[in-house]
Amino acid sequence: MCGRYTLYKNTEYLFRRFGIGDVDISVSENFNVSPGQKMPVITYAKSGNRQIEFMQWGISPDWSGGNKTPPKLINARGETIFDKPLWSRLIKTSRCLVPADGFYEWKKTGFGTKTQKLPFYIHPLEMDLFSFAGVCKTSYYEGFETSKTYSIITTEPNKEMADIHNRMPVILDQKEESLWLDVSKNNSVEIQTMINPYENNGLEIYKVGNDVNHPANNGRNLILRINS
User: What is the pTM of this model?
Assistant: First the structure.
């Protein structure tokens, strides 16, 4: 799965990397993006140009109904995404890019009462700013928009990630980003070709401190390498 990530590049660099026009928006650096937070995602505007929107991380399923605290689905499983009604609809009509410069994952170690989870920071070696494949959902009540939310697509791990966790987020190649955003292209076979593990030997993975375990902590120290 993908339950935490970082986005700390400055706004100007972010906009230039993703081809966003001149808009009066500022994106604050975040070294511990957690479920429920509002973060920037990239979509296509009606004009056909890329735009940035702030959405909350975690989509409520259709069956949540009137629950006061409906579950929030922060990830969608890529291998079965066309088999589930909610995800099948969103993957065809509401795809987005989720900008990031890295993500965290926890590795389980030990046995029984001595089990612990060790946090690691992961990022592509060849990209300092990239995008996760995402889907988004706009909710309405009596015809009025009430919320915009997003979820990150996950897949099987590549060689390096397999030692840490059995899932990883889908990291798009820069060439794939426009295709992912273009919902006029909704052929399931074409979409599925982009839902793959990142290339083997393409990630840097290193252990970080336990401060990242607490969502309230947010600072550059969270991504500092520590000795194993």
Answer: 0.93
